[in-house]
């Protein structure tokens, strides 16, 4: 039995067998061959090609065949075969090396192609190439789509694109070496209500496939091959946790109203339209953040206007009169779309991402805006733009929005003229100039995941600096206060959709700072509602005033802990 401690990223307790997912890069052998060996090497290639093709055909069964269509075409491509044959004859190197060279060369060509369609084939080509290579090297490469029965996913790190082929219902829990509380693995886990512990450093090296694993997302503990007594202890904690959850669920239909009568809006963050059902089940007042980029994180192609229209409409219809805030594409940084090669920024988090990318690629941006406005007739839509750093970006957005509206009017396509247009405040420059930005926006939503990362210069996904990621740092709290005061002075509402909004430790502080709405993973809503319904805004404001002289995040966090424990009897649950 081994015990590991990491960052508790998604609550709940799960036990199951380990499914190990490691995306390691193979070391490809390189050696010279004699002219007489060319035929033999070529035959090895043909056998591996056949196996790779059969493997993909097996994957297609029961799935979206279009995802794999391009790969299947590549396996049948006579050009690939003749290039391999020719290279073997000319370079006289072993076939693994030869194939890798060809794949790299052709991928680079595709990535630089004029046509978007061809550029988007790059990922298919590399994937097809690595499948053949794996068969040549007799490597058994595990993919997430190979998961066939419920298991605990043990991995080094999970990219959003890795989860494409994954059946989320099969994942009982997640244990990962990398990642922090606001990394995308954490967000996905919470969205899927999957217990997760991240930042475990090297658990993926200690676990073997089939080991029994307990993931305790409440305490941040992972136990490998637990003894019977440990299993019994965790089973008991799981039961206790589940009964607390169902007690909280009982207030699902009650309003999020403080004891002194301030009505807050508790909303949900979602990644895919299908989550709307879970949003309603947890008693959310609306959707405060629909991360639309998850529609785009699929290999091969950007969704068309009609596909986007269908996705946005389905969420609006499911939510009825409740407000739905959809964020435009936030691609780049840690959210990479397979097959779409953005520039190789040396510092992606400060690079060509989010609104910067959209303003530089207006055809993609306009398509999304058209779909959003067309969907607006089906519900209560708000549109929000990510990573705004200054007024020039907002002015340009407003111009594009009015052009899109004019086009729709000309084409006779119905839309709502009064869709509120808001911005995310997640860059420090936007926070300190919030008064200027408020003149140009209908609402603000504070993205604390990025705001904290940029304010404290701490990569939100890097477990080595996670100790510096302090939401209660006075620098962060002062920025939040500035944003809220600037917005209220100009009469616009402020929400928060970063993970801090769902942190029960922060609720009273945020109430005291004057936040109007909180948006979080649906699973977090019942506890936050319980806290909101148990306190007065006046006491929260007084408490926040007492925090102002404190000089460090640790001091403030300690004070918040004590306040919560003294004031809310259920908090030590
Ligand atoms: C944020 O930065 O707080 C946010 C909500 O956006 P994302 O986590 O998608 O970057
Ligand atoms: Mg963000």
Description of the structure:
By secondary structure, the chain is of the alpha/beta class. The chain has 23 helices and 16 strands. It has helices spanning 38-60, 66-75, 78-91, 95-111, 116-120, 122-136, 184-191, 203-206, 228-249, 276-281, 293-296, 305-319, 354-360, 362-375, 391-411, 428-432, 434-438, 448-456, 474-489, 507-513, 525-532, 537-547, 553-567; strands at residues 2-5, 7-10, 13-21, 151-155, 171-176, 196-198, 212-216, 221-224, 265-270, 286-291, 323-327, 380-385, 421-425, 443-446, 494-496, 517-520. Strands 1-8-7-3-4-5-6-2 form an 8-stranded mixed β-sheet. It has an 8-stranded parallel beta barrel with strand order 9-10-11-12-13-14-15-16. Helix 7 (184-191) links the parallel strand 5 and strand 6. Helix 3 (78-91) packs across helix 4 and helix 14 (362-375) packs across helix 15. The longest helix is centred in the N-terminal third of the chain and has 23 residues, at 38-60. It is globular. The site of phosphoenolpyruvate has 10 residues, from strand 10 and helix 18.
Q: What is the structure about, briefly put?
A:
This protein is of the alpha/beta class. Helix content is 46%, strand content 14%. The model has no long low-confidence stretch (mean pLDDT 90).
Specify Rg, calculated over alpha carbons. 26 Å
Distance between the termini: 28 Å
Q: What ions, cofactors and ligands are bound?
A: phosphoenolpyruvate, magnesium ion
Mean pLDDT: 90
Q: What does the largest sheet look like?
A: 8 strands, mixed
Multimerization state: single chain
Binned strand content: 5-15%
State the shape. globular
Which percent bin holds the helix content?
40-55%
Structural class: alpha/beta
